[in-house]
Every structure is written in structure tokens, then in C-alpha cells.
Specification:
This protein is an alpha/beta fold. It is built from 18 helices and 27 strands. Helix 1 packs parallel to helix 3, helix 2 packs antiparallel against helix 3 and helix 10 runs parallel beside helix 11.
Length: about 700
């Protein structure tokens, strides 16, 4: 076909019906990859325990949101979006079966691998039966002083209805017998969440040889004191996960904050979605719980103790550096360095000289983003600061800088996204604190979450106004910036500044804007912009010109984008997809996607950046930003991608992808059947290097070259 002849949709062969991977099962495959890190003996032991905790925490959120939303739609008869053409009830059954298999594998990993290895390293998790009299006396004293006063056993009988059971809390089901009447009664005891889950047996022990007992185990062996005069027959551990998905009808309320606060209250009482029980639970107790929670048999997960391995997060704080990853100290980006460590960088001067691309956590957040905002807050020449806030830390220096700027009389606008899932309450608190300090706080657009990461600083310089912007892929959160991999672009470009000014006017006022130069903005422009560029690569390939697509995202679900990538692959475009979590595209399928490769990288840092790169016959088009390839990001959020223009920045992105897709670097690769294969050993039998370690070394070598 000649270059002048366009390829119409009607000229193309239909794509197969089974071309998508189910998004929920794909998410479970992602969590399986997390579990595989916990099972990997080459990873430091306390990091493996941490991956077990991450798996548990991830799965909780998956049930609270994704499974809960799917089940609610099935029960209420609402339309259930599915990208695989199967009945939602069948998908739900597959989810329950797969999740249960993974939870059993997760529990066995702890029991058979992690717990014995911890004991060998001098970190023992013990049962009450393993303790001698002296140990028991120490723990009994601790129990009486710190635990017993806050326990609240609740009876269940005709005078005491079955109590409300909060989501994700550990509970003891207890059966007691009244010796006077010989009647057996049931009671429920909540394990206090404010007390450490794993209690030190004896604080006099050496840090190299310490013992812990699970809190529920300690409490269970003191039950006689809670039920004096009664005979304790047995006890079992259980835990319920509730529907914590939220739906706010913004167009039906005048006050978003009030509507959100009501919904947060409702979230606490969402219906049960999963019941986890210890595998020693008796049939009568299980029957009672199933009846009271009104759940189906497939929602019951029978597991070996201990339940809720997210408690293993606590072990990462132990002072055992030999059992953890070797520390990596983020470095200051070369353009923000000063002659003396005590000197504060002039971030404005550095950005004015040249655009700066920072890569966290390899490069420091505190000496780049935080320093930029702190300088803006105190600089007398700064007139205004505008910023979006999606998630930030509780003691955020970012929020403190905005407050300081407002108190200094500067114009400060903060767009706080109070609908950021599970951070709603914290964001409401910060929004009110900002308002009290004189910051202009807005909450975005009705029906849309504001997910983009933007800062704009307006500064008076020599009688004119200079604009300095930061556009990132990650949140303005100093804590997560140390463990999330993200990019951020600082620029004083007139094009970018004009674009960002337009966008803030859209967010805070009544403007409707679709004309941007270096930005792609959702929901009005981003999807079409990506589709145009994908089709352009296909046209280049059909015409024999250089083509190529490289995408990095947390998730890829959007069917329209996926179909466009399939068409590009069929046209001969090499497509590299780097995804951390959900991935609905199929890779390497003959006739469909043989030119598509999919990789996943997990490790000490959470791969969080989004990159969209198009070869464009040598005139490369590369964007970074906040948007994943999901319906919500492209259609129901304010998202921003910014085009990179500096050749050095483009080279850094290229090198990043080279690492990820190299056969000599450890990663997971998707097979044509949609399963994932981890490659950690070379053909020569040697351990392959980790991508994140390579990036650390690469950045160190680059700094050394510049120093020479």
C-alpha cells in the first residue's frame, strides 16, 4: 500500500474476541509477582518478610475496592464492565479461587520459609507453649499493665446481639461454659490495633537473639481473667474485610466535603466481602459467623495462623542492616548542587539555565522538589504559588511551605483532591489547615479527580514575571518519594508555563481549555493525543520509516488504546510495554501482537513513573506524567503528560528502557498465553542483576564522568 493511501478501520481484519486479559485476574498475577519476591532466597530476609506484608496489604485493598465493587454491581443488577466477555459471576468465582490459592501459598511461605529463616537469624516468633515460667511472668505483667485495661469482650446472647465487627481488625471468637447452668455461650474479643502486633518477650534480650509472640496469642492465653467463673472451652481467630469502595454523587450536593464525610462514615459499615478464619475453627462457630455476616461459602478463607501477615511490616524496623537491602542515599541532582553542603541551592537560577529532569529516589526529593517550594515560600520576589495535592504525608514540609508562603502575603492556590482513596480524611484535615492559613483551597471539578502533579511559581525578575513549573509522575510526598520511583521535570519554558497557567484556570475557575502546546491533558485531549501518535507510528511502519513505541505505566487496561497497539504491532511497529501491575494486553501472539513485548519490574522501589515514547521517524516524541492507561485516568480524571525536549533527558529515558528490556537484567516477561515468567538466572547459570541496582550504579558512574 502506498504512503498516500490511508488505511481505514474497515480495511482491517477484525481483532479476536479473546484479545484482553481479565483485569482482576491480571491484578492477582501482579500480587503473585510480589509473593515471588518473598519466596526468593537471594533477597535479604527482612525484605522478604516485608514483601509478605505488602502482599497482604495489597490483597486487602483489592477486596475492599475491586471485589467489593464487582459484587455490589452483581447484587444490585448494575451493568458490570468486563473486558473478557464472560459472565461477572464466573469472573468473581475465578477471583475467589485464585485469591484463595495465593493466600494459602502466602501463608505457607511464611510458615515454611520466612519464619524458620528468621529464627535462624535470631528473630524468633514463639508460641505460649515455648515459653518458660520466667518468660510467662514477664509477659503476664505486660499484659496486665498494657493490654488487659483496653480489652472489651462482648457477649452474644438474646440480650446482647452480635456486635459490629470492624473491617481488617483481628478478632478472637471465644466459647465459654457456665458451670452453674452448663450452658455454652459465645463471645467476641477484638485484638487492640494500637498495641504492637508482635510483642517482645523479654526486652533484656540481645538484638541479635530476640523473641516475639503474636499479640493474639498472648491475649488468648489470658482469657480466664476476662471470664472469671466461666470455663473457657476454645478460641479461634477471625478477620473480616468490608466493602470500602466509595461512590459520591457530587452533582447532587452543594458541599463536597460534607458529602465525603458522610460517605467516610458509611464506609466503616460496608457489607462484609471476605471472612478469614484460622484453620482450627470449629463448625459451630463458623456457622454463627457465616450467618451473622450473611456471606457465601466461597467468601470464607480458611488459613493457617497467624492471620493478617501485614503485621510483618514491624520487622523492617529491626536494627539488622545485614538482613536488609544495602542502603541507598538519594543524591542531589547535579544542577541543584552547591559548593558547600550547608548552602541552599538557588533552584530558580538552575531551572532558568536549563530544564532539569529528576529521577526519584535515585535523586533526592528534598533537595529538588522540596527545596524548590521552600525557596518559593521565602523568596521576596515570588508573587504566587499554585499546586495540586493528591497525597502527601502527615507532617508534610510541602504543606508547611505553602502555609509559610500564604502567611508571608503571597498568593497561594492549593488544589486538594479530597477524593484520593484512603487518604480522604487526611486531605480534608490538610485542606482546612491550609484555608485557615489564608491559602486559596479548591477541590477540583465535579465528577473528576484531579490526579495531575503540578507546581507553578510566579516570580518577579527585572520588571517581568518569570514562571517556574514542576510536572511530575508522583505525589508531593517526601516519605513515599524515598520508595517510589518517579520522574519530575522542572522548567521555565514559556510554552509549558502558558499551558500550566491555562490548566490552573480550568481547575480553579470556569475556563474550558483544550489548546496546549507541550502538555497532553485528560479527559479532553490525552486519549486522542496518544491514539494519534500510535497511529502515526503505524503509518511510519507501513511506509518503511523508523517506528517504535515504548510505554511505561502502572496499569494498562483501556481497550481502545490496547486495540490501537495491536494494530500498530500488525503494521510492524516494535512495541515495548513496561507495566508494574494490571496488564490486559497480550504479548507475542502470532498475527495479533508478535511485535509487542511486555515486561514487569518489581523490587525495593515501587516502579511508579509513567513514560510514553514514540520514535516518530527519528523526531522523537516522549512524555512523562501522571496518567496510567486506564478508563478512569483517560476519561474521569484531570491528568497531565509533558513532552520532554532536552536530548540528555531523552537519552536517560532510552537507557532506562534498555535496562528493562535487556535479556541480561532480571525481570518478569509476559508469555503469549498471558502468564508471567520471571527470569533471574542467565543462560550461564549466573544471577542476573536487578534493574534498580543498575540504575543506582549508572547514576553513580554518570556523576563520576561529569566530575572528571
Amino acid at each position: 500500500m502506498s504512503e498516500e493511501t490511508p488505511v481505514l478501520a474497515t480495511d482491517l481484519a477484525p481483532l479476536p474476541a479473546d484479545r484482553y486479559i481479565d483485569r482482576e485476574l491480571s491484578w492477582l498475577a501482579f500480587n503473585q509477582r510480589v509473593l515471588e519476591l518473598a519466596e526468593d532466597p537471594t533477597i535479604p530476609l527482612l525484605e522478604r518478610a516485608n514483601f509478605l506484608a505488602i502482599f497482604a496489604s495489597n490483597l486487602d485493598e483489592f477486596f475492599m475496592v475491586r471485589v467489593a465493587g464487582l459484587k455490589r454491581r452483581i447484587v444490585t443488577g448494575l451493568a458490570v464492565p468486563t473486558n473478557v466477555g464472560r459472565a461477572p459471576t464466573d469472573v468473581l468465582a475465578d477471583i475467589n479461587r485464585t485469591a484463595y490459592e495465593l493466600q494459602l501459598r502466602h501463608a505457607n511461605c511464611f510458615k515454611d520459609q520466612i519464619k524458620p529463616a528468621l529464627a535462624e537469624a535470631g528473630i524468633r516468633i514463639v508460641d505460649w507453649e515455648q515459653l518458660d515460667t520466667a518468660d510467662r511472668e514477664i509477659l503476664t505483667e505486660y499484659y496486665e499493665q498494657r493490654i488487659y485495661p483496653v480489652l472489651m469482650p462482648l457477649a452474644v446472647d438474646p440480650a446482647h446481639p452480635f456486635p459490629y465487627i470492624s473491617g481488617r481488625a483481628l478478632n478472637l471468637s471465644i466459647r465459654v461454659r457456665n458451670p452453674r447452668t452448663d450452658k455454652v455461650e459465645f463471645a467476641r474479643l477484638k485484638v487492640p490495633q494500637m498495641i504492637p502486633r508482635y510483642v517482645r518477650v523479654d526486652r533484656r534480650e540481645n538484638e541479635e537473639d530476640i523473641r516475639f509472640i503474636p499479640l493474639e496469642e498472648l491475649i488468648a492465653n489470658q482469657l480466664e481473667d476476662l471470664f472469671p467463673g466461666m470455663e473457657v472451652l476454645d478460641h479461634h481467630v477471625f478477620r473480616v474485610t468490608r466493602n470500602e469502595d466509595m461512590e459520591i454523587e457530587e452533582d447532587e450536593t452543594e458541599n463536597l466535603i460534607q458529602a465525603l464525610e458522610k460517605e467516610l462514615l458509611r464506609r466503616r459499615f460496608g457489607p462484609p466481602i471476605r471472612l478469614e478464619i484460622s484453620d482450627d475453627m470449629d463448625a459451630a462457630t463458623l456457622e454463627l459467623l457465616v450467618r451473622e455476616f450473611d456471606i457465601d461459602e466461597e467468601q470464607v478463607y480458611t488459613l493457617p495462623a497467624p492471620l493478617d501477615l501485614s503485621g510483618l511490616f514491624a520487622f523492617s524496623r529491626l536494627p539488622r542492616p545485614e538482613l536488609k537491602y544495602k542502603p541507598h542515599i538519594p543524591v542531589t541532582h547535579p544542577q541543584f548542587r552547591t559548593n558547600s553542603p550547608s548552602d541552599k541551592p538557588d533552584t530558580f537560577a538552575a531551572i532558568a539555565r536549563r530544564e532539569v529532569l529528576v529521577h526519584h529516589p535515585y535523586e533526592s526529593f528534598s533537595t529538588s522538589v522540596q527545596a524548590f517550594l521552600e525557596q518559593a515560600a521565602t523568596d521576596p520576589d515570588v508573587l504566587a504559588i499554585k499546586q495540586t495535592l493528591y497525597r502527601t504525608s502527615g507532617d508534610s514540609p510541602i504543606v508547611a511551605a505553602l502555609i509559610k508562603a500564604a502567611e508571608a502575603g503571597k498568593q497561594v492556590l492549593a488544589l486538594v483532591e479530597v477524593k484520593a482513596r484512603f487518604d480522604e480524611e487526611a486531605n480534608i484535615t490538610w485542606a482546612r489547615k491550609l484555608e485557615k492559613a489564608g491559602v486559596h483551597v479548591v477541590y477540583g471539578l465535579v465528577g473528576l479527580k484531579t490526579h495531575c502533579k503540578l507546581v507553578q511559581v510566579i516570580r518577579e525578575e527585572g520588571g517581568r514575571l518569570a514562571h517556574y513549573c514542576h510536572i511530575g509522575t508522583g505525589n508531593y510526598n517526601p516519605k513515599t518519594s524515598r520508595i517510589y520511583e518517579d520522574f519530575g521535570l522542572f522548567t521555565s519554558s514559556h510554552e509549558v508555563s502558558r499551558d500550566v497557567t491555562k490548566l490552573f484556570n480550568v481547575l480553579s475557575g470556569y475556563a474550558i481549555e483544550t489548546d496546549y502546546d507541550r502538555l497532553l491533558v485528560a479527559p479532553l485531549q490525552l486519549r486522542s493525543g496518544l491514539l494519534e501518535r500510535i497511529e502515526r507510528e503505524a503509518e511510519h511502519a507501513r511506509a518503511g520509516r523508523t517506528s517504535g513505541i515504548k510505554l511505561k505505566a502502572n496499569s494498562m487496561v483501556d481497550e481502545v488504546i490496547i486495540d490501537a497497539l495491536y494494530r500498530a504491532s500488525q503494521a510492524g511497529v516494535p512495541v515495548e510495554v513496561w507495566v508494574r501491575g494490571i496488564c490486559a494486553i497480550r504479548a507475542g501472539v502470532p498475527g495479533l501482537s508478535e511485535n509487542i513485548q511486555v515486561r514487569s519490574v518489581l523490587g525495593r522501589y515501587l516502579e511508579h513513573s509513567r513514560i510514553y515514547a514514540f520514535e516518530n521517524d527519528g523526531n522523537r516524541d516522549v512524555f512523562i506524567g501522571s496518567a496510567d492507561l486506564m478508563h478512569r485516568n483517560l476519561d474521569r480524571r484531570i491528568e497531565v503528560l509533558v513532552r520532554l525536549s532536552d536530548r540528555e533527558h531523552l537519552a536517560r529515558v532510552d537507557r532506562f528502557f534498555e535496562f528493562a528490556f535487556s535479556d541480561d537484567v532480571s525481570s518478569w516477561r509476559m508469555l503469549p498465553d498471558g502468564t508471567w515468567q520471571r527470569r533471574v538466572i542467565s543462560e550461564e547459570g549466573e544471577l542476573l542483576p536487578d534493574l534498580q541496582d543498575l540504575v543506582m550504579v549508572d547514576r553513580t558512574e554518570a556523576r563520576a564522568r561529569r566530575a572528571r
